[in-house]
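Q: My labmate handed me this sequence with no annotations at all. I'd like to see what the chain might look like in three dimensions before we decide whether it's worth expressing. Could you predict it?
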Amino acid sequence: MTYTPKDKVMRACKEEEVEDLKKEVRRKLMAAAAASPSSSQLQNFIDEVQRLGVAYHFEGEREEALQHIYGSFHDNNDMDGDLYNIALRFRLLRQQGYDISCGIFNKFKDKQGGFKEDLITDVQGMLGLYEATHFRVHGEHILEEALAFTTIHLKAMAKDLEYPLSAHVAHALKWSIRKVWRG
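A: Here is what I predict for the chain of 183 residues:
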């Protein structure tokens, strides 16, 4: 295949545009990390970059941001967060090999030892917990219980959810995040 001068110019313009976009994402990632290392905004940004499949462009920045998240997570043990943010933080860190205790999910259990029934109304939190369970290691019973709990309830509610949440739940149930890609 031969390229005309017009094709070369077009390709150069596209490559420059891609580089500009990468710089913008890198700038936003570092700004979010500097502003608030434990923020849900930073966690969501990292998650979105990974889900888009472009995280390899930002390995250094992503690792630095995750180190900030780990430091803040480790410092306060995240006892104040909601299910979605705790589960997302847990998953992002476990995905990259950080040693995070699954005990942080104990706060979502009732006195009888089961997961609190009111969690069922938090679809995003349930989905986050479901995805986090795919990073369990042998013997983490709370995550095994969480997998069973979230699977049953997400399957039951999937047909009643509106798009795009319904599609996200269906996709997560069909293809676990760990099977799709590794951080």
